[in-house]
Amino acid sequence: MSAASIRLFNRTLLLACTPFLGLLIWMLSDTVALKLSEEAYPSPSVHSVDLDAAAVQSLEGLDHAEVLAQGTGQSIRKQISLYNKTNADMNQIAAIASKQAARPHLIYDRRITAKLGKPASTIQSDRLQAQLFYVNTQNFRSYALKIKLKQDDAMQLVLGKDENGGSETTLEAVKRTNAAIGVNGGGFADSGGKRYPLSTTIVNGDYVSGFQATFKDLFFVGLSQSNKLIGGKYTDKSQLDAQSPKFGASFVPVLLQNGRKTEIPSKWQTSPKRAPRTVIANYKDDQLLFLVVDGYNEQGSSGATLAEMQILLQRYGAVNGYNLDGGGSTSLVWNGRVINQPSDGQLRKLPTNFLFFK
Question: Does 20 or 72 have the greater pLDDT score?
Fold first, then answer.
């Protein structure tokens, strides 16, 4: 390129840059204040407005939730209060219903107790309620023992010294087992210097000498696993097993069934005619009744006849009644004291005794 051309290019470039150079010199030499118009500030966007509304709505929601929670809490407290009141009312109704349900039993108990007279002594515990009565009879002195069993272990039949063939007085059995009450049990037979229970005898659910079918006038009497008096004549073991016997003994004869007298075999009407007696019976509410009669010997001249025992059982409202071993075997022990007057002059050693525990 020629020198003339270079000079022409430089002039042209200088002319093009001159306005910018002037503007730069002015800005550097003076303070410039820039002011933007209102249009330069954009209006809040729609999204920004929506965000504020959502925040307000959230706050309002929280306030509503708090009010709702307070209302729910009050409702829950009210429901709990209502539940507690209803529960208390139901408990009161149940207590009243239970009391009303027990009322017929109390009335029945008062009625049968009134027939026996006023109790001379009472034993009350969690296991049982026992009442001892001195009964007014014309021809003999007698005692009544009314017992309500409350627990399964309140009554037991024990073998003499806890062994088959063993024997002990009712008082000895009471002291050995720490029992509160004792009454003689079933009949017995002596052999080889030992005293064995007569016929079918059950202790703690076990047959002592196996099952023996009823013969002649023998019967079995005892308690079932549900503490109900069971008894009668059994020709087959399955008949007795069906009643779930817990314990029991055998003797003669049956005196009362379903409130009615049974026919007393002629042999037992006169052999002996009168004697010390022990009878076991039950009431409609499953309470037990023992009648014990004193006599000064076994010769038939003192004590009660079996027919008189039937009369007493009916008079006192019993349902079923069974004659236990009598004569010198008749024994009644109450709170460690012998109540009756044994005809032998002292208590006889026996193979079985009914015991009651506080």
Answer: 72
